[in-house]
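Please review this one:
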Amino acid sequence: MLNSKQRAYLTGLSNDLEPVVNIGVAGVTPEVVISCEEAFNTRELLKGSIMKMAPGDPREMAETLAGRTRSQLVRVIGRKFILYRPFKENPKIVLPEQKKRV
């Protein structure tokens, strides 16, 4: 689970990214999940967009996609969303540490 500082950090990193995954009229289809999985093979942070004609709420669609790809939903802004899944070996993105309460 990401805390607010980690979310802000990942959002800052995603500012320069172009959307790689597009959810269309059919919604979150197996093809969309496969293309997202393929994108996660080469990157840890992924930006996607949801077309205006897509059925349903953008947040629900992004959460569904995050669940099916075993990634974490960082943020949904309008019809754009950011997903994060670290590499299992040698992650490239180092998240800020979570403060420990005393």
